Amino acid sequence: MSRGGEALLKAEERRLLRDRRIQLLMGLLLGGGVERLTPILDPERGYRYPEAERILGSEAEELLEKLQSIGLLERETCGLLALCPRCGSTKIEPEDDAWRCLRCNALEEELRHKPLYCYRPNMERVKSLSDHLILPRVLEFLRERGYRAESPGELLGESGVKHRFDVIARGAGDNPPLIVIDIALGEGLAGDVEVKEMFAKVYDVNPFRAVLIAVPGLREEARRLAERYGIDAIEVKGPKSLLSGLLRVIPPVEEAGYRTLDVMSLLSLPDHLRKTATVLCSLGEATAEEVAERTGRARAVESSYLNQLVRMGYLKKERRGRRVLFSIVA
């Protein structure tokens, strides 16, 4: 973010906007997933916000109130919750001409009422903070490029484990290219931990492209690690850097897909990937173990490199029984 823009934000606003959960919530509200957050009745707690809790956890109501206090959300009364005036319980039943509390056993003629609020984005405030709202801008960019996007989203990996990503985008067609995006937010540069955490998920789901958006950027070792893992890193140091980074790594949906591994493409690859690709070119189709026998490297290493080439669009991957076969795109 620009220094001038950051200086205009109050400390609480800056802290909230650097909270990844807040970015996810605003992405949900502004990205078309949910138009407003509406409470539902809960027999134990009285009421709750299920969509917000899915992202914000147990702090959902507190954070919604904070977002309303800084003007990012606006609220309106959408109901009243009847409470016992003595203990505040919602477990009450009519008895004769009064109300019996099932918690404290009090019999009361009058009940206390608490307003229930619905929350929606304050679009004027959203517009003024647009440079600081990363996910809504990412979702808008993806849809303009023709992708179907959801935030957050889950994918089932080959291991049978479900993995959550901040954004999942799909292209068109019977076998649409899959793009996964995570965001690393903080006061300082993101390190190798964030890259490794994303790679663990990416390795299991094998998307067409994996993108890590780091605000305000990545440390040098994290940058090198992302490149080695085949993760496209976008470092957001200013308002324009997000758009330029997205344009660099995410093609229009009609251009997303497999690419021919010709001589020029081979020469453009890093040395470690070029060696793997060259061996597979000679074999035509092979498992990671068969490639490893030719390269002299460990099977796990070759599996990682082959999956990177899959994500780059140069290879196809197919499971046949217990064997996972990689092949060159014709």
Description of the structure:
The longest helix is centred in the middle third of the chain and has 14 residues, at 192-205. The protein has helices at residues 3-8, 11-17, 20-30, 50-56, 60-69, 123-128, 134-144, 192-205, 220-229, 239-249, 263-268, 271-283, 288-295, 299-311, and strands at 40-42, 46-48, 73-83, 92-95, 98-101, 107-108, 112-121, 148-150, 153-156, 162-165, 167-170, 178-185, 209-215, 232-235, 285-286, 315-320, 323-328. A five-stranded mixed β-sheet has the order 8-11-12-13-14, sandwiched between helices. The mean pLDDT is 88. 40% of the residues lie in helices and 26% in strands. The protein has three domains: 11-128, no CATH class; 133-255, Trna Endonuclease, Chain: A, domain 1 (3-Layer(aba) Sandwich), CATH 3.40.1350.10; 263-328, Arc Repressor Mutant, subunit A. It has 330 residues and is α+β, with helices and mostly antiparallel strands. The protein starts with a helix and ends with a strand. The relative contact order is 0.09. A hairpin with a 2-residue loop joins strand 4 and strand 5 (98-101).
